[in-house]
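Quick start: read one record
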Amino acid sequence: MYVKAGTSYKVAYTVPKGKAVKVIGGVDVGSDQYYWPIADQFGFYKITYKNKKGYVAQGNLNFTSAYSWVPGVKAKAKKYAKSYADNDPYRFVKSKKYGKDGYYSIQHKWNGTWYTIGRVNCKTGAIHG
């Protein structure tokens, strides 16, 4: 795991393969990666292991459920949805699994019809819309 969300940062600790870690947050793009056309492929999980905190690159963890939300990510997605839904109802619908992470479609209801306004990676928080 890295000290910051990015592959150019110092490795803080090496977690033995197969050991359980606790995911405590997500970062949609590494702070050393600036702009990437498909930023969610370069996201990071914020984790703790044996009282050490750090970041692991997306795709390097296996999850019990691809569609369980990482702390803080759903709140970010709700803020995004509210900003685009203009007080219309919105919802999250399981969309697809990419690699090991689940994605939700962010939909809002307008004139009785549900429209997709974006997709969110429920692990890293990357939103595309």
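The chain has one helix and seven strands.
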